[in-house]
Amino acid sequence: MRFTAIGLSFLFHLTLIGGSTGSEVSCSSRLTTPRGVIQTPNFPRAFPVPIKCRWVIDVSDISASNSSIVVYLTQVYVYKGLRFTEYAYYESESMNFGATLIKEITEGNVFEYKLFRTFRPFLVIEFELDQLEGNHVRVLNDLLDVYGFNITYQMTEDVPNPDSCSVQRCSYTGNCFMSGDYE
């Protein structure tokens, strides 16, 4: 019984972060938990390109009077291809309404924000990239060897944590990790 629970937990974790056992990378899912982590496959290492991912954060079934989705841009090492769009309703790519682009990561704003917040029940995070070369912003041990992103989200009624960890706060060289309780 314990082995099954651990195995299922491992498979869920692989699905959540985009793990795949085949040659095609699967990195899209619908997230309905109040908090979680979203990252590119193989983060912080290189991942197969071209890549096209879509994560839908759906908190429509979580009852709260003043709920919001807060996204902490913990480690963002790409300066293009990442978009955040809020929706009043989202069933699929062709069946949705109330779309508003909140943020699109560009070379000019990649380190501008640590977090953002939406009061809509759906947040769609899209990531599309054709090539790795020239699209990442940090070095680690070798020249330009940190790729992709690692972000944390939570549904909350509280004020977002203004002291959240971010790449900029780590002086672009540290590793920033959220604690187990996402603080």
UniProtKB/TrEMBL annotation:
Xref: SUPFAM superfamilies: Spermadhesin, CUB domain
Keyword Repeat set for record: no
Annotated ranges, domain CUB: 27-156
Signal peptide per UniProt: 1-22
UniProt keyword annotations, A-Z: Disulfide bond, Signal
Protein name (record): CUB domain-containing protein
